[in-house]
Write a structure and sequence with these properties.
Distance between the termini: 35 Å
Strand content: 25-35%
Largest sheet: 8 strands, mixed
Radius of gyration: 16 Å
Order of helices and strands: HEEEHEEEEEEHEHEHEHEH
CATH architecture of the largest domain: 3-Layer(aba) Sandwich
Shape: globular
CATH topology of the largest domain: D-Maltodextrin-Binding Protein, domain 2
Structural class: alpha+beta
Length: 209
Amino acid sequence: MELFIKQRLSVIAPGEAVLGEETGGDTQAKRLWIVDPIDGTANFARGLPHFCISLARLTDGEPDLAFVYDPVHDEMFTAAADQAARCNGRVMQVSAIDALAHASVELGWSTRRPTQAYSDLHSRLLAQGCSVRRAGSAALGLAHVAAGRSDAYLELHVNAWDIAAGWLLVRQAGGFVNAFWTPGAIAAGNPILACNAALFDAVNPLFVD
C-alpha cells in the first residue's frame, strides 16, 4: 500500500518529497507528504475493525492537507489549512463537552515512554472522572476527536506519520492541538495533545511526563 501511494503521489505531485512509515524518505523537504499505510496495524493483523490509511502534506514543516480513510466504515476524513474538516463531505465539529467528569478521552500508549508515565497519566485522568479508553490507532483517534465522537486524544510520544493528518483534522474542526511540529519532530516524534477547546485548560495540566 505504501509503495502504491508513493507511486500515485509521483504522478499527482511530481517532484514533491514523500516520507513513509515503512520505506522512509526525506524529512527536511519544504513540501513533504507523510504516509502511514496502515495505522492500527495490530488491530488489522488480528481482524479488529479499527485501522486506517493516513496521508498528510506538510508545507514548511506543518500539515496543510490531510486525509484519513477508514476502509471498514467507508469514512474519508479530510481537511485543508484554509478549509473546514469533513467526513465524507460533511463538515465536522469537535464536541462541546466542557467538564472532564463528562469527557471521553483516548489515551494512546507506546514503548517509547516508560510504562509508569502512562500509568500515572491514566490515573490522573480517572481521578477527574474521565472515561478513558485505548483503541489502537492514533490517526483514527484524532479523526474521532475532530468528529466530536471523542473529547480528547493524548499520547506521551507518537511518530509524525501516525498523527500528521489527524493533527490538522482536529485543528480545522475547531479543536486544540499542541505544538507538535517542533524542529526534529518529523524524524523523532513528539507528545500529542488534542481536545476540544473547552477542555484544554483542564486537560493540559494533567498532560505531564
